[in-house]
Recover the amino acids of this structure.
């Protein structure tokens, strides 16, 4: 309420105003692909054919495709200044619903989970965008709710719904094209569309602007609440799509999958150079981040003595280190 | 300009009172409901069971309440529990107490790490503790190789399952923790600093308070208490189960704190309210389960309650 | 004259019973730059908020293009053609210049996709029109604040604004950037756009504007052509003083007798520099001396206080307290981290300007707020001693006559004056050597004001060194033993003893543009 005080002492605009540090910028935006390339080379050098085989690389691609779908949605959410913790549970819910609805044929097996996920995202979005509840609270509750729903649908996990092998969904989901699994092609297609939407549409520009400065975006007349609602819908629907593809791949829907996926997705996005505070980042960075994470996980698996649990340790530590480095670099860049 | 006086007169008092009392009203209502409609509810065994089951959440929630009072959040508590649980079988060869000390030290270390990231590295509490949530659980699973280890140590068993004058030891520990936390918040300079930082961080800095040190301490306490909860859970189950112990407990703890009347915006804290919040969530789960509704329903109800509680609180602070 | 673009008719606005605006009228014509000046709390911001629909007037009305209007908010006002350029540039720093210019109405191609080529080309045209040279693809935040400010103006104009309100646009600009802005405003005037220029810099009033309206305490105290007034007159009306008739005795409660001989040196701050806000400010304070810092808003008063107290970082300069200040006349000061905690340990106390956001902790009780800084002295093994706490609180509640229902009452429930006393008590219970008071009597009632003024006298008499900042001239004049006059972040005059008068201070503030009327 005290309006015109003395010129405030902390002025982000002013701090950013003077001189940028291209090196810092490069380190933030362009480092993931470079590190990825280095890791790939190192992996090949150490494990040779075992790592660089078509089979293994194909597995990495397949494994990455689900995460990429989730991470694309997460990129929009984080760019808008939010966070979506519900994606892991939503992945499970979508998978269970796919399997459950597969009894009614392929269209139902796709539309039911996507529809439910869209509603779920809408609920998240309305609570964040209109009711203005902190995104992490909303989506943390969403995490719990979706997991509960997934278990409820699968009779507390006692009932595993099987997707018939002859269903079109199964055949398409498990198809391979040019030696690469269908989910990879789906993910790449979504990625291409998302690239255009983020970079070439007014919606995409609005996402950036809201994450950069919600107040300014509001004053410039952008429909802030609607855009914020939409990014959560987008995140939920893409996660739903990933769930459908996972279910088609495994021919079943398990309510237990996807735990910790939200973290992986966030880590991938952040590693890809998107600012956690929103407003700056890129989908290509996210792609590099996803691949980097998955390649490292794969390498950990290659080391016979390391269990899969190390992947979690690495993911968590990676997230913290990247955010730390990011904030250090941007702080220095802004000085 | 001018308008220091804009701040509205204290109209929030009544709703605040109602919200604070809301926990007690809800608990009373649930008790009455259960006494009337739930068979075998009013037995000593059942009531004791309810109390024992609420122990981990209650302890974690007390630490969470302190963190939230500084306007922070600690999502890593569940993983800290798992880490503590995973360490016990590794060190129980040296005796129960050394093993427990190691477990508690690990919790303290987790707390110090998140505290450092928040206070000194300036990371958002959500992200710092989210990272530790993943890494911590992973570390716990690495240490235990993902396995459940059964423990047959009598001392540990006693810690989990024995009672003094009919009151389970773990419940006594909760009471002890709450009393210490309550006294610390009310009677010590530390408590005053915590509330001052959560209430108005720049004012606290300008009053010369050691803001960063206090923040680190608060997260360290939260980590330590999470480790205590992990040890007690392990003791009660007679097994170290790093895959599942403390899973999603951060959510229950946050709910307990918020339902208990501590605002997420910091500056105020209610220790007893937090315990009651934890008890309420436990009673809701118990009611659902004892009426043969599945666990998944309990989760969904809990999710709805946390959103509702935060929404109500937010509406109040915005008013 | 032509019809007014904005006509404000006798608007009044109260906030929680406090009158912020009282029957204010103002006409803003197309093609004029109209200066709105006044000290803090004069009502400038409230007036802007009434025009742009953030608040609605209790009485009176706002007309836009001869139609009475009641905008729902700045967005609606902007859509109608009233754009506001805030002190804080309200654009998105991480987006490109072009992106900011066209956000929400980006040019699209046949597929509905944004055409960056066209957008950039159009952006370049816009910039060229306003003589701005900047790469339109660069993130806005990488540009200087002046350019950012200009781009905000350009955006406002490309949305067909007829009225542009600029809220202290130059407060963080370099001189060169100010020149640029002045040119742009000229351009606006030629396009028959009405500019309401809120400022506290006299230079700019004379340089940029044709008419000026002065607000003081929510009322218009002067309105007329700039050409018909002088700097000194403006300063006098802003500060509510009459040039010809500066009263001998003010309305303050300071005693007229000040000891001429102050005690030993207790504080020496040297060459405090923090660009662009502070430029080599040095202050000495002796025991028992009240040193006043005078100057208009933004002259570096608060910045000096915060630098001395370690609350804001400085580029260079040193602060020494007590024996250290006396010992090392020219010696190099030890490099150490200077922070409020360190300042307090060494015996400096500060009551900040912004009571609400930097001072009181509303949710805590009066007692807790008072003892906050003294906690280390009141604890034994970490536990608070009730007895010592209560004794201390009791002493200061009585001494400062803090009116609270009990020490347990929450501070946010107290009046402004009592909150201020709580903050004073918080610092006084540390028994500091130097006390910095930034606007200690702003926004508080007359009684509390008198009490605080008397207290300052009393404290100085007991040997405390006081650094007093006030935008009320009479307070500085009557309360200080020595006055430093600040302008543009530098000390431009020192007055002592009988030299201290409102006239002299105003002259010092107004000087520096002698070539102008």
């Amino acid at each position: 309420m005290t309006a015109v005080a003395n010129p405030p002492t902390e002025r982000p605009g002013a701090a950013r105003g003077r001189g940028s540090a291209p090196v810092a910028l490069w380190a933030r935006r362009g480092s993931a692909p470079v590190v990825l390339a280095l890791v790939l080379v190192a992996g090949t050098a150490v494990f040779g054919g075992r790592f660089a085989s078509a089979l293994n690389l194909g597995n990495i691609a397949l494994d990455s495709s689900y995460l990429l779908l989730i991470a694309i949605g997460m990129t929009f959410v984080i760019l808008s200044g939010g966070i979506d913790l519900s994606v892991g549970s939503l992945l499970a819910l979508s998978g269970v619903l796919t399997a459950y609805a597969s009894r009614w044929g392929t269209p139902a097996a796709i539309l039911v989970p996507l529809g439910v996920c869209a509603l779920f995202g809408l609920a998240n979005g309305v609570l964040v965008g209109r009711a203005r509840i902190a995104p992490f609270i909303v989506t943390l509750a969403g995490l719990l709710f979706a997991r509960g729903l997934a278990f409820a649908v699968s009779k507390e996990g006692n009932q595993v719904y099987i997707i018939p092998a002859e269903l079109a969904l199964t055949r398409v989901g498990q198809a391979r094209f040019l030696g690469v699994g269908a989910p990879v092609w789906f993910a790449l297609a979504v990625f291409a569309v998302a690239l255009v939407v983020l970079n070439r549409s007014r919606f995409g520009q609005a996402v950036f602007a809201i994450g950069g400065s919600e107040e300014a975006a509001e004053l410039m007349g952008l429909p802030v609440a609607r855009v914020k609602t939409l990014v959560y819908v987008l995140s939920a629907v893409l996660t739903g799509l990933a769930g459908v593809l996972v279910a088609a791949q495994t021919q079943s829907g398990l309510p237990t999958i996807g735990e910790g996926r939200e973290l992986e997705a966030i880590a991938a996005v952040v590693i890809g150079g998107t600012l956690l505070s929103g407003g700056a980042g890129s989908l290509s960075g996210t792609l590099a981040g996803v691949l980097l994470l998955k390649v490292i996980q794969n390498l950990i698996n290659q080391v016979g003595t390391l269990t899969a649990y190390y992947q979690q340790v690495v993911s968590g530590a990676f997230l913290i280190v990247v955010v730390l480095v990011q904030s250090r670099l941007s702080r220095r860049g802004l000085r | 300009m001018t308008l220091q006086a804009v701040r509205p007169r204290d109209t929030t008092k009544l709703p605040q009172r109602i919200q604070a009392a809301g926990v007690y009203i809800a608990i009373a209502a649930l008790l009455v409901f259960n006494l009337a409609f739930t068979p075998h509810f009013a037995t000593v065994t059942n009531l004791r069971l309810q109390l024992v089951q609420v122990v981990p959440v209650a302890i974690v929630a007390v630490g969470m309440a302190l963190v939230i009072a500084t306007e922070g959040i600690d999502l890593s508590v569940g993983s800290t529990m798992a880490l503590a649980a995973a360490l016990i079988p590794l060190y129980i060869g040296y005796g129960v107490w050394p093993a427990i000390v190691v477990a508690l030290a690990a919790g303290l270390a987790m707390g110090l790490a998140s505290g450092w990231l928040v206070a000194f590295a300036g990371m958002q509490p959500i992200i710092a503790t989210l990272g530790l949530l993943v890494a911590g659980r992973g570390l716990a699973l690495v240490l235990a190789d993902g396995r459940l280890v059964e423990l047959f140590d009598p001392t540990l068993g006693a810690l989990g399952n024995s009672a003094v004058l009919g009151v389970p030891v773990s419940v006594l520990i909760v009471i002890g923790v709450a009393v210490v936390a309550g006294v610390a918040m009310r009677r010590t300079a530390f408590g005053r600093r915590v509330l001052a930082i959560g209430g108005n961080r720049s004012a606290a800095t300008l009053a010369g308070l050691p803001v960063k040190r206090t923040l680190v301490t608060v997260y360290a306490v939260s980590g330590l208490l999470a480790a205590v909860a992990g040890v007690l859970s392990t003791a009660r189950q007679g097994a170290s189960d790093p895959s599942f112990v403390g899973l999603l407990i951060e959510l229950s703890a946050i709910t307990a704190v918020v339902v208990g009347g501590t605002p997420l915006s910091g500056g105020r804290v209610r220790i007893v309210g937090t315990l009651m919040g934890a008890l309420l969530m436990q009673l809701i789960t118990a009611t659902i389960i004892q009426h043969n509704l599945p666990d998944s329903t309990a989760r969904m109800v809990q999710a709805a309650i946390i959103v509702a509680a935060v929404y109500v609180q937010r509406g109040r602070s915005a008013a | 004259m032509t019809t007014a673009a904005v006509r404000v008719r006798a608007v009044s606005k109260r906030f929680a019973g406090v009158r912020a605006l009282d029957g204010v009228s103002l006409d803003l014509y197309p093609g004029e730059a109209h200066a709105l000046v006044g000290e803090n709390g004069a009502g400038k911001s409230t007036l802007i908020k009434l025009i742009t629909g953030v608040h609605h007037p209790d009485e009176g009305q706002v007309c836009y293009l001869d139609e009475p209007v009641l905008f729902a908010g700045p967005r609606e006002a902007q859509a109608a053609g009233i754009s506001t350029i805030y002190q804080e540039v309200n654009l998105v720093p991480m987006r490109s210049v072009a992106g900011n210019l066209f956000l929400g109405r980006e040019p699209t191609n046949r597929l509905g996709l944004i055409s960056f080529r066209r957008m950039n080309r159009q952006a370049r045209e816009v910039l060229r029109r306003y003589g701005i040279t900047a790469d339109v693809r660069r993130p806005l935040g990488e540009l200087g604040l002046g350019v950012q400010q200009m781009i905000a103006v350009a955006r406002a104009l490309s949305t067909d604004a007829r009225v542009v309100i600029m809220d202290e646009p130059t407060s963080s600009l370099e001189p060169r950037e100010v020149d640029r802005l002045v040119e742009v405003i000229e351009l606006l005037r030629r396009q028959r756009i009405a500019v309401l220029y809120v400022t506290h810099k006299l230079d700019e009033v004379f340089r940029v504007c044709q008419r000026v309206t002065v607000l003081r305490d929510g009322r218009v105290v002067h309105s007329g052509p700039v050409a018909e007034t002088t700097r000194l007159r403006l300063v006098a009306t802003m500060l509510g003083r009459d040039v010809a008739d500066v009263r001998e005795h003010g309305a303050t409660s300071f005693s007229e007798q000040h000891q001429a001989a102050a005690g030993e040196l207790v504080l020496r701050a040297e060459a405090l520099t923090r660009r662009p806000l502070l430029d080599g400010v040095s202050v000495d304070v002796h025991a028992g001396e009240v040193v006043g810092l005078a100057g208009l808003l933004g002259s570096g008063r608060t910045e000096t206080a915060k630098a001395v107290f370690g609350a804001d970082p400085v580029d260079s300069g040193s602060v020494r307290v007590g024996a250290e200040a006396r010992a090392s006349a020219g010696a190099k000061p030890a490099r150490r981290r200077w922070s409020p905690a360190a300042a307090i340990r060494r015996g400096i106390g500060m009551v900040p300007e912004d009571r609400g956001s930097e001072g009181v902790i509303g949710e805590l009780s009066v007692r807790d707020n008072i003892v906050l800084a003294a906690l280390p002295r009141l604890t034994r093994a970490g536990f608070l001693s009730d007895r010592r706490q209560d004794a201390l609180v009791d002493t200061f509640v009585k001494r400062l006559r803090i009116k609270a229902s009990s020490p347990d009452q929450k501070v946010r429930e107290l009046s402004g004056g009592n909150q201020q006393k709580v903050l004073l008590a918080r610092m006084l219970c540390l028994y500091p050597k130097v006390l910095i008071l930034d606007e200690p009597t702003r926004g508080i009632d007359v009684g509390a004001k008198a009490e605080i003024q008397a207290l300052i006298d009393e404290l100085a008499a007991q040997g405390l060194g006081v650094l007093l900042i006030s935008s009320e001239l009479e307070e500085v004049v009557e309360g200080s033993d020595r006055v430093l006059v600040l302008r543009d972040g530098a000390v431009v005059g020192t007055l002592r003893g009988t030299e201290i008068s409102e006239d002299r201070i105003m002259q010092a503030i107004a000087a520096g543009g002698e070539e102008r009327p």
